[in-house]
Amino acid sequence: MAKTAVIFRSEYGSTKRYATYIGEKLQADIFTTEEAKDISSYETIVFGGGIYASGLNGSDWLKKNQEALLHKKLILFTCGISDPQDEKNVENILNGVKKSLGEELMSHAKIFFFRGAMDYKRLKLTHKGMMKVLYEMIKRKKERTTEEEGILQTQKTPMDFVDVSQGEALISYVKE
Ligand SMILES: Cc1cc2nc3c(=O)[nH]c(=O)nc-3n(C[C@H](O)[C@H](O)[C@H](O)COP(=O)(O)O)c2cc1C
């Protein structure tokens, strides 16, 4: 099989859990974006990042390596708190990823969507601030979607939807 690297950026560990599972199953080399400096020897790159305010975390690394990546098999996975079983959420994620990456890289990549975790108390100060703004916006709405109700819950209760077995479809795709 082609030489594969799994590269990820993870703030609180959910993306790392998926990346580690996928990387080990594929017997791939696993790197954080800080470690991944020379990718020339890899034919396949699997990249994972969390969704933050609709953007893909680590997209700066993807943009920096765009030229090389366009000549490789590229698989992206996102990790967000919203449920990717809901088509509307996937549509939102895709719009955000497109803004982060641009058309060319986006259309070259195959994308998978996984669900992450959130523990408000563990968030960095900047992230707490961002979430507070979002909570207030949602609280002011007269009608809320189930997704918004779910986000509100994270303020009081830690949520963990990580299910690494969701990575199997990606693993099969890489092996094709
Ligand atoms: C400030 C902030 C903004 C976020 N924005 C989104 C978002 O727009 N959509 C989403 O699905 N999840 C969002 N999340 C949830 C993260 O994507 C989720 O916690 C994910 O598991 C993080 O992965 P990581 O710990 O590997 O970085 C946000 C989380 C934080 C802290």
UniProtKB/TrEMBL annotation:
It comes from Anaerotignum neopropionicum. PROSITE patterns: FLAVODOXIN (PS00201). This is Flavodoxin. GO terms for molecular function: electron transfer activity; FMN binding; menaquinone-dependent protoporphyrinogen oxidase activity. PANTHER family: PROTOPORPHYRINOGEN IX DEHYDROGENASE [MENAQUINONE], PROTOPORPHYRINOGEN IX DEHYDROGENASE [QUINONE]. It comes from the Bacteria. The lineage of its organism: Bacteria, Bacillati, Bacillota, Clostridia, Lachnospirales. Residues 6-143 form the Flavodoxin domain. GO terms for biological process: heme biosynthetic process.
